[in-house]
TrEMBL record:
UniProt WD repeat ranges: 75-114, 261-296
Superkingdom in the source lineage: Eukaryota
Keyword set includes Repeat: yes
Protein name stated in the entry: Uncharacterized protein
InterPro entries: JINGUBANG-like (IPR045182), WD40/YVTN_repeat-like_dom_sf (IPR015943), WD40_PAC1 (IPR020472), WD40_repeat_dom_sf (IPR036322), WD40_rpt (IPR001680)
The keyword Repeat belongs to this UniProt entry's keyword annotation: yes
Keywords: Repeat, WD repeat
SMART domains hit by this protein: WD40
Length: 322
């Protein structure tokens, strides 16, 4: 099945209910809806920012921001390619090469917030239980959240990577204790999150403060780490070296090498693990710049390392129409 149209390369996809949001190189987000007549038919229902959003803002000069010298845009517009999307709590988050993070409300498809988030392109986003993490080419992962009853996001913390090394992807463990970032130097870095309850004066409602501590630096690949995903205690990393690394999370957030998958003929740009177990393992989907989508079966860790050899096997390669 294929749907869409030629409006610039698709950089990211998020599915929400019966809608699919696609982020494009032309700085637009397109919204597709499943047809009532057939689950295999999608139709374009809107483009973000919407025409209604434009019309409500274009007359006021205060709604324009400087994007480059002698050039202004509405603050609801991305000025460069949109590289990543995330969904959480009825909101869509978009990260762009224009260094901004924008927040879109699902109910009316309106842009409700724009954040000057980084000093360089945003490459990855993940949202988890009230905190949004953005990974950037400036070598930082930033955590964004809301305080109290405020409707806007504020900076909660900065997870510093290696100097002058782009961070290309970010993931968070299900219990929110561990945050991992993949760098262009081939390292996967891990941070541990810790929470403290604080109160302001007579305010009986405590605020939850979160801090992050670097606990893991693992040389995972010979070349840049481009993508990552988590399945329980297993972390998968895709690289520009055409391989997929399989890692087991151990005590204190450390990563232990479990296996390596080879087979792609180009950099591995995206990874997604199935949410269901198969035969004591899980299915791993990988998309590469070789224009292929591959599906792998990854066994669960055994008690002895000798039994872990060749635990990741290719089940099938699917042809993709782009």
């Amino acid at each position: 099945m294929k749907f869409g149209q030629g409006d610039g390369s698709v950089k990211a996809v998020v599915a929400v209910g019966n809608k699919v949001f696609t982020a494009h190189q032309d700085s637009k987000i397109r919204v597709w809806k499943v047809s009532r007549r057939s689950e295999n038919v999608f139709r374009l229902v809107d483009t973000l920012p919407t025409t209604k959003d434009y019309l409500g803002k274009f007359m006021k000069q205060s709604n324009y921001v400087q994007t480059r010298r002698h050039h202004k845009r509405l603050w609801i517009e991305h000025a460069d390619s949109i590289s990543c999307l995330a969904f959480h709590n009825e909101l869509i988050y978009s990260g762009s090469w224009d260094k901004t993070l924008k927040v879109w409300r699902i109910s009316d498809l309106k842009c409700v917030e724009s954040i000057k988030a980084h000093d360089d392109a945003i490459n990855g986003l993940v949202a988890s239980k009230g905190i949004v993490y953005s990974a950037s080419a400036d070598g930082k992962i930033k955590a964004w959240g809301k305080e109290g009853k405020k409707s806007t996001h504020c900076l909660k913390g900065i997870l510093q990577g290696h100097n002058d090394v782009s961070l290309n992807s970010v993931i968070v463990s299900e219990d929110e204790r561990w945050v991992y970032g993949g760098g262009s130097d081939g390292f996967v870095m891990g941070w541990e999150a810790s929470s403290n309850s604080t109160s302001n004066g007579d305010d009986v409602q405590n605020q939850l403060e979160v801090s992050w501590k670097l606990v893991c630096e693992t040389k995972a690949h010979r070349m840049a780490v481009l993508s990552m995903c988590l399945m329980g205690e297993m972390l998968c990393s895709g690289s520009a070296d055409k391989s997929i690394g399989i890692w087991k999370m151990e005590a204190f957030g450390k990563l232990c090498k479990f296996g390596v998958i080879s087979g792609h003929e180009g950099p591995v740009k995206c990874l997604q693990a199935a949410t269901y177990n198969v035969g004591g393992g899980f299915m791993l989907y990988s998309g590469g710049l070789d224009k292929s989508l591959r599906v792998w079966w990854v066994a669960k860790p055994s008690k002895t390392r000798e039994e872990d050899t060749n635990s990741a096997k290719s089940s099938e390669e699917f042809p993709i129409v782009l």
